[in-house]
Write a structure and sequence with these properties.
Number of strands: 0
Order of helices and strands: HHHHHHHHHHHHHH
Helix content: over 70%
Shape: globular
């Protein structure tokens, strides 16, 4: 029992610092998007909402799943082959992300030249390019954050994107008094590019120095081979998760127009506040779990999971009650016209409540090498979104989109918990059985 308490204390203490950053970061994001809503007309805010959601989706695609791969493989490689070898593997992943970002930028320039934009949303060429640049910066920022988290530099991993980006964008937007969604998108992209430069200076300096000393090429090649095999699953899961988080706003914008998309986006961003405790604890959970599980300490892994689940659910439940009672007041911070979206906020929050009640199940499955089974599950549930979203939105409006998103989120998490138990969560698993 004392060992379990010690492990949980370590998890909570490690997550405490990242939790404070995540809480402040989430608060800053809320202030930023509410400020945008105040500065922009509702149609322009809707354009920003669709552009931002599209950039997040494209950025996830561009990352090639390497942020998850780093969190899974760096700690276990460092444990078995040493830090230098782990950084050699990390450099391989970074090259993949860099190549992918270059390709996306080329396509963004091409699309902007031909002025290709989503149906229902009028993007000009410059706005399309802004979305592409923001997507690339988002992919690079996520990779840097994951790499630094895996190495134990939690503050360097989180502060630039979670706090510095939002503070600088918030102050800049207020000072300049922006009036268009396109300007807001460009501002977000350029500021994000600015704040990740110090991260890459730190990361690349370490990588180039330590990876050049790495030995045992055969074992390093074996780890790279494992990353290649896992990439499709990890990448697919990340894309499917991003589709679940962003596709509804894009579909509402394409079907009902930018004004309705702006309101749906505001409700979505608010409902995601319920995951703040889960996200915070995940910053410490992934690397700790990877070390425990792949070293054969399955009991430790189960203790970490259960502790993370209880912590995140209790936090989410308190926020849900607040939204249930005072949701319209939070929505009014975006503008008086947004208060009518409270029913959508409540429906989306119900889905997030189930999400947190199931704990970090997807992170657990990815860290223990069950990404293929999870990929199939996530793919099937996410496939329902593009199939049924246009229909549900056309018939029931934003309410239909919210009900579909929440239902699929609940189904995904409950099924993922089932996969977790099937993978051996209830009974100890020997190290040789872990991939």
């Amino acid at each position: 029992m004392s060992e379990k308490k010690s492990l949980l204390r370590k998890l909570i203490s490690t997550a405490a610092g990242s939790g404070v950053i995540k809480i402040f970061g989430t608060g800053l994001a809320f202030l930023l998007f509410s400020l945008f809503a105040r500065l922009l007309e509702q149609d322009e805010y809707g354009i920003l909402a669709v552009g931002f959601s599209t950039a997040l989706l494209l950025g996830t695609i561009t990352s090639l799943g390497q942020d998850s791969a780093v969190l899974r493989f760096w700690p276990s490689t460092e444990e078995t082959l040493g830090r230098e070898a782990a950084n050699k593997v990390l450099l391989y992943s970074l090259k993949l992300v860099g190549s992918s970002c270059t390709t996306l930028l080329f396509l963004a320039v091409l699309f902007s030249l031909f002025n290709i934009s989503p149906p229902g949303i009028k993007f000009d060429g410059t706005a399309l390019l802004a979305v592409g640049v923001l997507a690339c910066c988002y992919a690079l920022a996520n990779f840097a954050s994951a790499a630094l988290r895996a190495q134990g530099s939690v503050y360097w991993a989180l502060i630039p994107m979670d706090m510095a980006w939002r503070v600088i964008t918030l102050v800049s937007a207020y000072s300049l008094g922006i009036k268009t969604g396109q300007t807001a998108t460009w501002m977000a992209a350029l500021v994000l590019l600015l704040v990740i430069v110090p991260q890459y200076k730190l990361l690349l300096g370490t990588l180039m120095k330590e990876s050049s000393r790495a030995g045992d090429a055969a074992k390093i090649t074996g780890t790279v081979s494992k990353i290649r095999k896992a990439t499709i699953g990890l990448w697919g899961i990340a894309i499917a998760n991003s589709v679940g988080q962003n596709a509804a706003t894009i579909a509402v914008g394409a079907t009902l127009g930018p004004a309705e998309a702006g309101g749906f986006f505001a409700a979505t961003r608010l409902s995601q506040l319920m995951t703040i405790f889960l996200v915070a604890i995940n910053q410490a959970f992934g690397p700790m779990l990877s070390r425990s599980w792949h070293s054969g300490r399955a009991g430790e892994a189960r203790t970490l999971y259960l502790g993370a689940t209880i912590f995140s659910f209790l936090g989410a439940l308190s926020i849900f009650i607040v939204f249930l009672v005072w949701g319209q007041h939070f929505l009014s911070l975006f503008g008086d016209t947004y208060t009518k979206f409270k029913p959508i906020l409540v429906i989306l929050s119900l889905g997030q409540l189930v999400n947190t009640a199931c704990g970090p199940n997807r992170a657990f499955l990815m860290m223990i090498g069950r990404e293929r089974a999870l990929f199939i599950l996530v793919f099937l549930t996410s496939l329902a979104l593009p199939i049924f979203l246009p229909i549900s939105t056309k018939i029931y409006g934003s309410m239909g989109a919210a009900m579909l998103v929440s239902s699929l989120l609940a189904i995904l998490n409950l099924a993922a918990v089932g996969l977790l138990y099937k993978a051996g969560f209830k009974t100890p698993i020997k190290p040789k059985q872990n991939r």
